[in-house]
Amino acid sequence: MQIRIGVLATAALTLLGCQTQPQQPVEHxxxxxxxxxxxxxxxxxxxxxxxxxxxLRAGVRLYNxxxxxxxxxxxxxxxxxxxFELKGLSGRWExxxxxxxxxxxxxxxxxxxxxxxxxxxxxxxxxxVANSAQGIxx
Amino acid sequence: xxxxxxxxxxxxxxxxFGLAAGCTPKTQLLPPGAVDQPVTMGLSGSDxxxxxxxxxxxxxxxxxxxxxxxxxxxMVVSTVLNDTMQRIDTDQLVKKIxxxxxxxxxxxxxxxxxxxxxxxxxxxxxxxxxQSRKVDRSTLVRQRLAAPNMSLSGKIIQRNNRVxxxxxxxxxYFQLTLTDLANGLAVWEGETPIRKLGSAKGTSW
Lengths: 138, 205
Description:
A: 3-stranded antiparallel sheet, B: 205 residues, alpha/beta, flat
């Protein structure tokens, strides 16, 4: 019995270790987190509201739960009612150094009042581009 | 003997050309937002993007460009000074801000009025069309130029400092102001600092 549990645990850990696809946390479906970033990111909250009366505004509060400084690469994508992505400076890839345990809030305002939904991509720059689809700006 | 010398020279030249061609760095197309964007000590496109993005985000969240009468602000671009050691076209910054403000649906920019005359000279040329006999006057529309009610001005500053003997810190400050032309008051102001640490041997101009 113990051997079986051991084998299962090893298999589960191996699978987790080999995970290469970005994940969408169940509680925050707007987030897309890369496998490396997932190992050190702790998401505290995802917030949304409006700025300048009719522009969608979204943000994520997070911190680095590892003991080393990490570099986070992130991007906000904005979508209209038809599901098409809206272009703008607030949809560019940006980088942010994260010190251990230091809470950080990242937020952006949508480029247009047409934006009705959004997605926040959080990656580590060392994640291979092929696995993360993080190379091209929208 | 002379044939042999010519052959040696030709061989040496071919080898030199071959080596030079082989050592030439390959030209790459960098997609926007690529992970390995080169970082320069001077100002690059991504620095202008950063500064423009910060300015627009700050303007939109501050409420400075909000109107509750359903109309849009009309902005005129005033002077954006380049106080750096580099030759910069400040339109690299201003254009990005204009594009993003236009997309936001809050601000329109006039191209008919400016400190150095109209940005789009066609506005003036169009007014003269009514004098031309070649133009069908029934197709002309009466011009009523919208006067701006806001002005965007600013300055880009550069400061170089030597650090630890062999490194230098180059600081750039993008300072922008949005002025309400009705009363001359600054309704929004922003500053984006961009700091770069690199070799003191490199130049930033």
